[in-house]
Description:
Helix content: 25-40%
Strand content: 15-25%
Oligomer: single chain
Structural class: alpha+beta
Mean pLDDT: 86
Amino acid sequence: MVDHRSALIARFGVPRRVSSEEAASLARLAAAPTVPRDAATVILLRDAPAGGGVEAYMIRRTVAMSFAGGMYAFPGGRVDPADSDEMLAWAGPPVDVVMPGLDRDPARARAVVCAAVRETFEECGVLLAAPPQAASDGPAPDEAAPASPAGVGTEIETGTTFAADRQAMEDRRLTLADLLTRRSLALRADLLGAWTRWVAPELEPRRYDTRFFVAALPPGQQPGVASSEADGALWIRPAQALDQFYEGALAMLPPTVFTLAELAEFDDVAGVLAAAAARDLAPVMPRISVADGLWRLLFPHLDREAVER
Length: 309
């Protein structure tokens, strides 16, 4: 089995020289780091057609994007104020029951989940929601329930009938709460599984505190045309994505690649969703080291001996 972790540490840990101007800029950031903004991303999964593994849905961000332009990523984005709308329709177990380690603040955790659902719909047209009655046969509120790999009771067909709503949401003319009310749907946290949480290094000028979620592609839905923020999309096995990353064909940020390395170990979507229930959601924050004119990216959460090698 390929030791992706060591390979990625070595790949991202290659030092580079910095100019005196860049070093001064990094020193200013070290003195007053940017406060990270909450963000969410969703890894849509389906069982590989030939069996033996999963496929993840990825988009290629346009080169013009100020953040991660030209890179492959999962659908997602920052949390908006509207994601905290208390009137947003909700069904099934509350988020602090489904994902107890997501955040100590239940309201903040709820907003992050809402952002994950909203961004996924805006960026690829997949809506992780269901009719409210679909949750009526679920567990009692005090019982945790893993996300359903089969999407039982979630068959809603977005397709062209939701295209206008999707465009309105992307243009900020429609909120997720409005959409759910209009379509008699409700958000369900148990359609997602919290996978990991990455916080950008303190020496990054643009910082996000991003929660990564996994979700099975709902029955009856397929990703549509990518949003204006993307110029391409694909379904790909995590191992294939890693191979293309090593070859230089797919550009990706460290959180994306490390997550793909973890997902490459699973045989099916059901296994991924079951594993999500026991994931450690403690924040992962790489560290940028600047010394002797060299810039290095370190991963303190991983094997320190491997990092130092």
